[in-house]
Design goal:
Radius of gyration: 18 Å
Strand content: 25-35%
CATH architecture: 4-Layer Sandwich
Order of helices and strands: EEEHEEEEEEHHEEHEEHEHE
CATH class: Alpha Beta
Largest sheet: 6 strands, mixed
Structural class: alpha+beta
CATH superfamily: CNF1/YfiH-like putative cysteine hydrolases
Distance between the termini: 26 Å
Bound molecules: zinc ion
Shape: globular
Strand order of the largest sheet: 1-2-3-15-7-4
Oligomer: single chain
Number of strands: 15
Number of helices: 6
Helix content: 10-25%
């Protein structure tokens, strides 16, 4: 189950517990203005750096991390999951992240792993036995590539994680209600996951044809449940799934489908306590 906290407003999952702090941010409780109002946590959204820093300071003060402890992903819709360590502290907020990495993991305390979303799926993983965490960004391409399963594999290889120990939280993202696509997206899911993906794909009429073009079949997909399927296949059974759709609630979350480029970024953060 997910719980809401205020000032600033963020969500936590009670599936993730023991020696760790985490959150899924909303758009409320920061200092950014205009279309970035107010808890923008992205450094590439046209915001002033001082505002983004202050937003991390406020969120971190409530959740239990400092801006100086953050380590960012660099999200390019890959299935790359990188192990990070103390030398990566400050990656993203204080200097650009060079290597592509849609997921990051560590077993070092005091590193606040940060991934971003504004319709894509943010996923946090915690192994309370081997003391390791991961933050994963999965849009539809990352979901089709199984990045969250790559994260479980990486934790097993790097930290000796038993997938059965993992606590997983799948955060707010665009829901089945609003994630409308052409046929290429369900085709990619079925190619990757087979018929097990079918329950999470709904055929829903046809998209209007462009001038002179052919009408395309229209689908709706449940990215949260497709990622949960990848997790179950990887051996994870403790999985919490947020019921929130970002596109349905633009007053509460940033949604790329709703606002296009004129939006901020939400962050999912997880850190092993020092
Ligand atoms: Zn929706």
């Amino acid at each position: 189950m997910f719980h809401t906290h205020y000032q600033p407003e963020y969500l936590t999952s009670d599936t993730i517990s023991g020696g760790v702090v985490h959150c899924f941010s909303t758009r409320h409780g920061g200092v950014s203005t205009g279309y970035l109002s107010s808890l923008n946590l992205g450094t590439h959204r046209g915001d002033e750096w001082d505002n983004v820093y202050e937003n991390y300071r406020r969120l971190g003060a409530a959740v239990g991390f400092a801006p100086e402890q953050t380590v960012f992903t660099r999200q390019t819709h890959t299935d790359i999951v990188a192990r990070v360590g103390a030398g990566n502290r400050g990656d993203g907020l204080f200097r650009e992240v060079e290597p592509e990495r849609d997921g990051i993991c560590t077993n070092e305390p005091g590193l606040a792993l940060v991934c971003f979303a504004a319709d894509c799926t943010p996923i946090l993983l915690h192994d309370p036995v081997r003391h390791a965490v991961a933050a994963v960004h999965a849009g539809w391409r990352g979901t089709a590539k199984g990045i969250v399963a790559r994260a479980v594999e990486t934790m097993t290889r790097e930290f000796g994680t038993d997938p059965a120990d993992i606590q997983a939280a799948i955060g707010p993202c665009i829901g089945l209600c609003c994630f409308e696509t052409g046929p290429e997206v369900p085709e990619a899911m079925l190619a990757a996951l087979g018929e097990d993906a079918a329950p999470f794909i709904r055929r829903d009429g046809t998209l209007p044809s462009a001038l002179g073009g052919e009408a395309a079949e229209k689908y709706h997909l449940d990215l949260k449940q497709l990622n949960a399927l990848w997790l179950r296949r990887a051996g994870v059974s403790r999985i919490d799934v947020s019921c929130d759709c970002t596109r349905c609630r633009p007053d509460r979350f940033w949604s790329h489908r709703f606002a296009g480029q004129e939006r901020g970024s939400m962050a999912a953060v997880i850190m092993l306590k020092e």
